[in-house]
């Protein structure tokens, strides 16, 4: 990644930083979907320079990265964030400095409490049918290995566009948990339409972005 563009979020007394992240990142996601280079693949990646270094877990800055300056110019992120212009400061596109480290920002899949409970019920029913034990016995046994829904990673609440299209009356809001993996060197790879590193087939590691 050779070029970047930095967006600073500007909360005020009425608009919280968390609410701004939801709205800014939702627009960035839609922009990346519109300019995707393959199924759920983006030529633009995102970075969080203040990840877990500020009072708010993601800080207040978002960076967009691309190999070519023209890629960021084509996205024209200013237009996508036009309705939020009073709450963001968008700098011009710049070359990435030479003195950087490298990290991978990755989506962490975390099951909701409702999903965990639903899975427990399904597993218990299957186990009861196979073993001849009662459903209550199977539930008690499975409770010992029940996964926790607790996750302390930074996250952004987003709306699933697919859920909104399929079921307009259904709540489409979900937390996008983001995990940072430090890397020893720059690694090429695949980024999804959230701009996060995704494992490519045949690749042993996640793609990286500069961190500075």
From TrEMBL:
Gene3D superfamilies attached to this UniProt entry: CRISPR-associated endoribonuclease Cas6/Csy4 (3.30.70.2540)
GO molecular function per UniProt: endonuclease activity
Native source organism of the sequence: Pragia fontium DSM 5563 = ATCC 49100
One example of a Gene Ontology biological process annotation: maintenance of CRISPR repeat elements
Protein name, entry field: CRISPR-associated endonuclease Csy4
Keywords for the protein's UniProt record, in alphabetical order: Endonuclease, Hydrolase, Nuclease
Pfam families: Cas_Csy4
Lineage: Bacteria, Pseudomonadati, Pseudomonadota, Gammaproteobacteria, Enterobacterales
InterPro entries reported in the protein's UniProt record: CRISPR-assoc_prot_Csy4, CRISPR-Cas6/Csy4_sf
Membrane-spanning parts: none
């Amino acid at each position: 990644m050779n070029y970047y563009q930095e967006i600073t979020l500007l909360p005020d007394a009425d608009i919280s930083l968390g609410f701004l992240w939801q709205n800014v990142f939702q627009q960035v996601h839609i922009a990346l979907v519109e300019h995707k280079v393959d199924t759920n693949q983006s030529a633009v990646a995102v970075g969080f320079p203040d990840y877990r270094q500020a009072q708010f877990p993601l800080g207040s800055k978002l960076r967009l990265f691309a190999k070519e300056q023209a890629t960021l110019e084509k996205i024209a992120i200013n237009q996508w964030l036009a309705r939020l212009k009073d709450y963001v400061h968008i700098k011009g596109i710049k070359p990435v400095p030479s003195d950087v480290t490298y990290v991978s920002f990755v989506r962490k899949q975390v099951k909701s409490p409702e999903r965990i409970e639903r899975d427990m019920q399904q597993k218990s029913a299957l186990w009861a049918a196979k073993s001849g034990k009662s459903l209550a016995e199977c539930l008690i046994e499975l409770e010992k290995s029940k996964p926790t829904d607790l996750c302390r990673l930074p996250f952004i609440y987003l709306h699933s566009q697919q859920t909104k299209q399929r079921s307009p009356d259904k709540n489409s809001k979900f937390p996008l948990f983001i995990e940072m993996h430090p890397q020893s060197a720059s690694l090429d790879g695949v980024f999804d339409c959230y701009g996060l590193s995704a494992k490519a087939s045949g690749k042993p590691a996640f793609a990286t972005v500069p961190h500075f």
